[in-house]
Protein backbone atom coordinates (compact mmCIF):
# COMPACT_ATOMS: atom_id res chain seq x y z
CA UNK A 1 0.00 0.00 0.00
CA UNK A 2 1.08 3.60 -0.64
CA UNK A 3 -0.44 6.20 1.65
CA UNK A 4 -0.55 9.78 0.39
CA UNK A 5 -3.15 12.51 -0.21
CA UNK A 6 -5.31 13.67 -3.07
CA UNK A 7 -3.31 16.38 -4.83
CA UNK A 8 -6.46 18.43 -5.47
CA UNK A 9 -7.99 17.80 -2.02
CA UNK A 10 -5.15 17.18 0.46
CA UNK A 11 -7.48 16.57 3.39
CA UNK A 12 -8.50 13.31 1.66
CA UNK A 13 -6.31 10.23 1.39
CA UNK A 14 -5.11 8.89 -1.95
CA UNK A 15 -4.46 5.22 -1.23
CA UNK A 16 -2.68 2.98 -3.74
CA UNK A 17 -2.96 -0.80 -3.43
CA UNK A 18 -0.82 -3.15 -5.52
CA UNK A 19 1.76 -5.91 -5.35
CA UNK A 20 4.86 -5.79 -3.16
CA UNK A 21 6.75 -3.61 -5.66
CA UNK A 22 3.90 -1.34 -6.73
CA UNK A 23 4.31 -2.70 -10.25
CA UNK A 24 2.33 -0.99 -13.05
CA UNK A 25 -0.63 -3.19 -13.93
CA UNK A 26 -1.33 -4.06 -10.29
CA UNK A 27 -2.35 -0.68 -8.83
CA UNK A 28 -5.87 0.32 -7.82
CA UNK A 29 -6.45 3.61 -6.01
CA UNK A 30 -9.08 4.80 -3.58
CA UNK A 31 -10.23 8.22 -2.38
CA UNK A 32 -12.06 7.63 0.93
CA UNK A 33 -14.45 10.58 1.11
CA UNK A 34 -16.24 10.02 4.40
CA UNK A 35 -19.93 10.85 4.29
CA UNK A 36 -20.07 11.20 0.51
CA UNK A 37 -23.12 10.16 -1.47
CA UNK A 38 -23.70 6.75 -3.03
CA UNK A 39 -22.94 6.51 -6.75
CA UNK A 40 -24.62 4.42 -9.43
CA UNK A 41 -22.73 2.11 -11.77
CA UNK A 42 -23.79 2.63 -15.36
CA UNK A 43 -22.92 4.00 -18.77
CA UNK A 44 -19.84 6.19 -18.89
CA UNK A 45 -17.95 4.13 -16.32
CA UNK A 46 -15.91 1.03 -15.69
CA UNK A 47 -18.62 -1.47 -14.82
CA UNK A 48 -16.50 -4.31 -13.44
CA UNK A 49 -12.83 -4.44 -12.42
CA UNK A 50 -11.10 -7.76 -13.18
CA UNK A 51 -8.15 -9.26 -11.31
CA UNK A 52 -6.00 -12.26 -12.30
CA UNK A 53 -5.30 -15.03 -9.80
CA UNK A 54 -3.24 -18.19 -10.37
CA UNK A 55 -4.85 -21.21 -11.96
CA UNK A 56 -6.55 -23.38 -9.34
CA UNK A 57 -7.04 -20.52 -6.85
CA UNK A 58 -10.83 -20.22 -7.09
CA UNK A 59 -11.58 -22.84 -4.43
CA UNK A 60 -9.43 -20.98 -1.90
CA UNK A 61 -11.14 -17.66 -2.63
CA UNK A 62 -14.63 -19.15 -2.57
CA UNK A 63 -13.94 -20.63 0.88
CA UNK A 64 -12.38 -17.39 2.10
CA UNK A 65 -15.26 -15.25 0.88
CA UNK A 66 -17.82 -17.60 2.42
CA UNK A 67 -15.97 -17.53 5.76
CA UNK A 68 -16.03 -13.72 5.69
CA UNK A 69 -19.72 -13.50 4.72
CA UNK A 70 -19.00 -12.13 1.23
CA UNK A 71 -21.52 -13.21 -1.42
CA UNK A 72 -19.98 -14.51 -4.64
CA UNK A 73 -21.10 -16.12 -7.86
CA UNK A 74 -19.34 -17.89 -10.73
CA UNK A 75 -20.04 -16.54 -14.19
CA UNK A 76 -18.80 -17.51 -17.64
CA UNK A 77 -17.84 -15.49 -20.71
CA UNK A 78 -15.51 -15.99 -23.65
CA UNK A 79 -14.78 -19.52 -22.43
CA UNK A 80 -13.42 -18.33 -19.08
CA UNK A 81 -14.91 -18.63 -15.61
CA UNK A 82 -15.11 -15.58 -13.34
CA UNK A 83 -15.63 -15.29 -9.60
CA UNK A 84 -17.70 -12.13 -9.16
CA UNK A 85 -18.36 -10.27 -5.90
CA UNK A 86 -18.81 -6.75 -4.53
CA UNK A 87 -16.90 -4.73 -1.99
CA UNK A 88 -18.77 -3.26 1.02
CA UNK A 89 -19.69 -0.15 -0.99
CA UNK A 90 -21.01 -1.98 -4.05
CA UNK A 91 -17.92 -1.77 -6.27
CA UNK A 92 -18.17 -4.67 -8.74
CA UNK A 93 -15.07 -6.89 -8.76
CA UNK A 94 -14.17 -10.26 -10.23
CA UNK A 95 -11.33 -12.78 -10.33
CA UNK A 96 -10.26 -14.82 -13.34
CA UNK A 97 -7.75 -17.67 -13.33
CA UNK A 98 -5.02 -17.24 -15.94
CA UNK A 99 -1.55 -18.63 -16.46
CA UNK A 100 -0.24 -15.28 -17.68
CA UNK A 101 1.29 -12.84 -15.23
CA UNK A 102 4.09 -12.93 -12.71
CA UNK A 103 3.29 -14.66 -9.43
CA UNK A 104 2.88 -12.40 -6.43
CA UNK A 105 5.53 -13.44 -3.88
CA UNK A 106 4.09 -11.50 -0.93
CA UNK A 107 2.15 -13.62 1.56
CA UNK A 108 -0.11 -12.12 4.23
CA UNK A 109 -3.17 -12.91 6.31
CA UNK A 110 -3.53 -16.51 5.17
CA UNK A 111 -3.11 -15.74 1.45
CA UNK A 112 -0.12 -17.53 -0.07
CA UNK A 113 1.59 -16.89 -3.41
CA UNK A 114 -0.34 -19.80 -4.94
CA UNK A 115 -3.60 -17.84 -4.44
CA UNK A 116 -2.48 -14.19 -4.33
CA UNK A 117 -3.69 -11.68 -6.90
CA UNK A 118 -1.20 -11.20 -9.73
CA UNK A 119 -2.61 -7.89 -10.97
CA UNK A 120 -5.34 -6.60 -13.21
CA UNK A 121 -6.96 -8.86 -15.76
CA UNK A 122 -8.71 -5.90 -17.36
CA UNK A 123 -12.19 -4.46 -17.05
CA UNK A 124 -15.73 -4.47 -18.37
CA UNK A 125 -16.58 -1.04 -19.78
CA UNK A 126 -20.09 0.43 -19.81
CA UNK A 127 -20.23 3.08 -22.53
CA UNK A 128 -22.91 5.62 -23.39
CA UNK A 129 -21.76 5.28 -27.02
CA UNK A 130 -20.43 1.72 -27.44
CA UNK A 131 -19.69 2.02 -31.18
CA UNK A 132 -17.49 5.06 -30.64
CA UNK A 133 -15.72 3.48 -27.67
CA UNK A 134 -15.07 0.35 -29.75
CA UNK A 135 -13.64 2.47 -32.57
CA UNK A 136 -11.34 4.26 -30.11
CA UNK A 137 -10.04 1.02 -28.61
CA UNK A 138 -9.40 -0.59 -31.98
CA UNK A 139 -8.43 2.26 -34.29
CA UNK A 140 -6.80 4.80 -31.96
CA UNK A 141 -5.45 2.80 -29.03
CA UNK A 142 -4.40 -0.30 -30.96
CA UNK A 143 -6.42 -3.02 -29.24
CA UNK A 144 -7.31 -6.09 -31.29
CA UNK A 145 -11.01 -6.93 -31.52
CA UNK A 146 -11.02 -10.69 -31.06
CA UNK A 147 -14.50 -11.99 -30.20
CA UNK A 148 -18.10 -11.33 -29.19
CA UNK A 149 -20.15 -13.07 -26.50
CA UNK A 150 -23.75 -11.94 -26.10
CA UNK A 151 -23.68 -8.17 -25.72
CA UNK A 152 -19.95 -8.07 -24.95
CA UNK A 153 -17.09 -7.36 -27.35
CA UNK A 154 -13.61 -8.49 -26.31
CA UNK A 155 -10.48 -6.48 -27.08
CA UNK A 156 -6.90 -7.46 -26.26
CA UNK A 157 -3.55 -5.72 -26.35
CA UNK A 158 -0.02 -7.09 -25.90
CA UNK A 159 0.98 -7.76 -22.29
CA UNK A 160 0.46 -10.36 -19.61
CA UNK A 161 -1.87 -8.53 -17.22
CA UNK A 162 -4.48 -5.82 -17.58
CA UNK A 163 -4.65 -6.37 -21.34
CA UNK A 164 -8.20 -7.69 -21.79
CA UNK A 165 -11.11 -5.29 -22.15
CA UNK A 166 -14.73 -6.40 -22.51
CA UNK A 167 -17.01 -3.65 -23.83
CA UNK A 168 -20.76 -3.84 -23.31
CA UNK A 169 -22.23 -3.21 -26.76
CA UNK A 170 -25.68 -2.16 -25.49
CA UNK A 171 -26.58 0.96 -23.57
CA UNK A 172 -28.15 0.98 -20.13
CA UNK A 173 -28.76 3.44 -17.34
CA UNK A 174 -26.42 6.40 -17.04
CA UNK A 175 -23.80 6.10 -14.33
CA UNK A 176 -23.58 8.58 -11.46
CA UNK A 177 -20.24 9.24 -9.81
CA UNK A 178 -20.04 8.54 -6.08
CA UNK A 179 -19.20 5.89 -3.52
CA UNK A 180 -18.97 2.42 -5.06
CA UNK A 181 -18.05 3.58 -8.57
CA UNK A 182 -14.82 3.79 -10.59
CA UNK A 183 -13.62 7.32 -11.35
CA UNK A 184 -11.33 6.45 -14.29
CA UNK A 185 -9.34 3.68 -15.94
CA UNK A 186 -5.59 4.07 -16.46
CA UNK A 187 -3.39 2.89 -19.33
CA UNK A 188 0.40 2.62 -19.30
CA UNK A 189 3.00 4.74 -21.06
CA UNK A 190 6.60 3.52 -21.07
CA UNK A 191 8.02 6.93 -20.14
CA UNK A 192 7.47 10.67 -20.55
CA UNK A 193 8.36 10.63 -24.24
CA UNK A 194 5.91 7.82 -24.94
CA UNK A 195 3.22 9.69 -23.03
CA UNK A 196 3.74 12.85 -25.09
CA UNK A 197 3.54 10.76 -28.25
CA UNK A 198 0.16 9.48 -27.03
CA UNK A 199 -0.98 13.04 -26.29
CA UNK A 200 -0.08 14.19 -29.81
CA UNK A 201 -1.78 11.12 -31.27
CA UNK A 202 -4.96 11.74 -29.29
CA UNK A 203 -5.03 15.44 -30.06
CA UNK A 204 -4.56 14.72 -33.77
CA UNK A 205 -7.58 12.41 -33.68
CA UNK A 206 -9.92 14.86 -31.95
CA UNK A 207 -9.47 13.80 -28.33
CA UNK A 208 -8.44 16.64 -26.06
CA UNK A 209 -5.97 15.27 -23.55
CA UNK A 210 -5.06 17.40 -20.53
CA UNK A 211 -1.60 18.84 -20.02
CA UNK A 212 0.77 16.49 -18.20
CA UNK A 213 0.00 16.25 -14.48
CA UNK A 214 2.84 15.49 -12.06
CA UNK A 215 1.62 12.82 -9.62
CA UNK A 216 5.01 12.29 -7.90
CA UNK A 217 5.13 8.56 -8.65
CA UNK A 218 4.09 8.95 -12.31
CA UNK A 219 3.01 11.61 -14.77
CA UNK A 220 -0.54 11.52 -16.08
CA UNK A 221 -2.73 12.85 -18.86
CA UNK A 222 -6.51 12.45 -19.00
CA UNK A 223 -9.22 12.55 -21.64
CA UNK A 224 -12.90 11.65 -21.76
CA UNK A 225 -13.74 9.42 -24.70
CA UNK A 226 -16.97 9.58 -26.70
CA UNK A 227 -18.66 7.01 -24.47
CA UNK A 228 -18.04 9.37 -21.51
CA UNK A 229 -15.52 7.11 -19.75
CA UNK A 230 -12.57 9.01 -18.27
CA UNK A 231 -9.25 7.59 -19.51
CA UNK A 232 -5.83 8.23 -17.99
CA UNK A 233 -2.45 7.48 -19.56
CA UNK A 234 0.22 7.24 -16.84
CA UNK A 235 3.97 6.75 -17.09
CA UNK A 236 5.62 3.70 -15.53
CA UNK A 237 8.46 5.73 -13.95
CA UNK A 238 9.53 6.98 -11.51
CA UNK A 239 7.57 4.45 -9.43
CA UNK A 240 6.42 4.18 -5.83
CA UNK A 241 9.80 3.49 -4.21
CA UNK A 242 11.30 6.92 -4.83
CA UNK A 243 10.54 8.21 -1.32
CA UNK A 244 10.40 5.11 0.91
CA UNK A 245 11.80 1.56 0.82
CA UNK A 246 9.73 -1.30 -0.61
CA UNK A 247 9.46 -3.12 2.70
CA UNK A 248 8.08 -0.05 4.54
CA UNK A 249 5.52 1.11 2.00
CA UNK A 250 2.24 2.22 3.54
CA UNK A 251 3.57 2.70 7.06
CA UNK A 252 4.00 6.49 6.82
CA UNK A 253 1.96 9.23 5.22
CA UNK A 254 3.94 10.39 2.18
CA UNK A 255 3.26 13.96 1.06
CA UNK A 256 4.11 15.84 -2.12
CA UNK A 257 6.55 18.65 -1.49
CA UNK A 258 3.93 21.40 -1.63
CA UNK A 259 2.03 19.87 1.30
CA UNK A 260 4.96 18.86 3.51
CA UNK A 261 4.73 22.12 5.46
CA UNK A 262 1.16 21.17 6.40
CA UNK A 263 2.07 17.67 7.62
CA UNK A 264 1.05 18.21 11.26
CA UNK A 265 -2.39 19.58 10.35
CA UNK A 266 -3.02 16.87 7.74
CA UNK A 267 -2.00 14.03 10.04
CA UNK A 268 -4.34 15.45 12.65
CA UNK A 269 -7.32 15.77 10.29
CA UNK A 270 -6.98 12.47 8.41
CA UNK A 271 -8.55 9.38 9.96
CA UNK A 272 -6.00 6.82 11.17
CA UNK A 273 -5.60 3.72 9.00
CA UNK A 274 -4.57 0.27 10.18
CA UNK A 275 -3.84 -2.74 8.01
CA UNK A 276 -4.68 -5.81 10.05
CA UNK A 277 -4.83 -9.55 9.53
CA UNK A 278 -8.32 -10.99 9.39
CA UNK A 279 -9.43 -13.57 11.92
CA UNK A 280 -10.74 -16.42 9.75
TrEMBL record:
PROSITE patterns listed in its UniProt record: VOC
SUPFAM superfamilies in the record: Glyoxalase/Bleomycin resistance protein/Dihydroxybiphenyl dioxygenase (SSF54593)
Lineage: superkingdom: Bacteria
InterPro entries: Extradiol_RC_dioxygenase (IPR052537), Glyas_Bleomycin-R_OHBP_Dase (IPR029068), Glyas_Fos-R_dOase_dom (IPR004360), VOC_core (IPR037523)
Domain spans labelled VOC: 119-236
PANTHER family to which the protein is assigned, alphabetical: RING-CLEAVING DIOXYGENASE MHQE-RELATED
UniProt protein name: Glyoxalase family protein
